[in-house]
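Lab meeting minutes (informal)
Scribe: AK
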Amino acid sequence: MLCGSAAHADATLDRIKERGKVTIGVLINGGPFGSIDPATQQLVGWNPELAQALAKGLGVQADLVQVQTATRVQFLQAGKVDLLIASMELNPDRAESLGYAPTPFYRVGGAAAVRKDSGITRWEDLRGKPVCVSQGSSYAKPLANEYGAQVHGYKSASDSLLALKGGNCVAAVHDSTLIHPLLNQNPEWSQYGTPIKGQILPADSVVWTRKGESDTIAAVDKVVRSWHRSGWLIDTERRLNITPPNPLLPELQTRLKTAS
């Protein structure tokens, strides 16, 4: 529940309390992390469920707004949403311009989709070979510099994955939250797998706020910490059939239960 007097809350927290509603931008990019139920047209999946639970934890109603990757930050900075749960991982550039709840709710890195008969089993096996990514991908630099891959950037993840299927590259590297559900749940991808262990550039997923909203951040972080302590995030991941299980969740549950 929201706490503290309005006189000491930042403007966003004041507004949330006055309206009895928090507006949360969520990314819906298909699969268990966010999609649209064809029967009800409601937003469902990991991101929408976290947004609903966050509003409940704050003691207000949720108003979910679908955002796009290219516009999600502008929606937050322009005040079209109060918070973001939008598959947007923490990095120094984002932390410079936005605020965030310090306790992460997930951790995401890059996973490589490759043909099962490719013989590729390690990141080092990509050396000298064409690898597809999205233009501007943060995975491009380590793939090229650390593993010697020939990185090819495509306009979107869909274009990159089509290029993989077309034989233009030996691997497509994208967020694990995209690659794993795609390969696990779609028969047309049955010839592809993720044999490379570990993720490239793993980073924490956090709830984003505008810069300097310390009271909002504190209220949100309190809710996120309660998710870990209760095991709700682990249960939700299991119920939504998100695999493989994220090792960050039991790690933080143990740490925060011990700290409480």
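Next up, CB showed the second protein from the same session:
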Amino acid sequence: MDVSLVSFIIVLLIFVFVFESVRRGILETKYSILWFNTCFALAVLIMFEGLINKIADVMNVYYAPSLLFLFGLLFALILIFDATRRISKLHRQLDTLTQEYSLLQLKIEQQKKQGRANE
């Protein structure tokens, strides 16, 4: 079996998996855009074999399909970096919310103590 065909099937399966995840509400649409773009770019590189061969010639790569896997790896790294960036942002927001909650809880307890002292 040709490696290009196997690559195309894998990209197609990933596309269907992402689409189904969005449809079921597991993955939000805004996060799926990067996945769809990645699938589209990989599919274009797979379908137009001449394009990948020209890029391989420019980059002096002997076996052109291996360049396809290199691009796939680079896209995967971009996706991982994007996920890490989003997790970091959520972690900062969680820290802020926790601190605000603690301050509000402390303020409520102080008001209760003042109310008891005034009685």
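CB comment: The mean pLDDT is 89.
No objections, moving on.
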